[in-house]
Write a structure and sequence with these properties.
mainly alpha; 2 domains; transmembrane; membrane
Amino acid sequence: MAILLAFFAGGLIAVQAGINSQLGIMLRNPMFATVVAFVMSALVSSVAIAFMAPAWPTKSLIKTIPLFLWFGGVLSAVGVGLFYYLIPKMGVGSMMSFALTGQLLLSVLISHYGLFGLPQIAITPIKLAGIVSMIAGLILLNR
């Protein structure tokens, strides 16, 4: 089930990137589309939290969270803004193929070194073959 949900999530990202890049064109600035995307995301997330009724984090818990973990949204804003800027220039297929390859390469390195407190998972020869295959696919998709 998790694998199907992961494929579904990837499909949603491709669709939203295409839709929001068009919104950026129509608004004459991809950063306006980025703001709209994040406002809508905040609204939907807020409604989901209201229905889930989770326990709110305590002040003492919040104080223990490393400062750098609060800045993931900055990376999201830059990444999403770049998507909306580049898709009209490259096409959604090319942009997604480069973005996915970049995500794969960096995620393998993050896992290999156990960065950000994540589990450390070594790069194996099979994983290297997968990376090479992904890069070959990137080249073939963008010919």
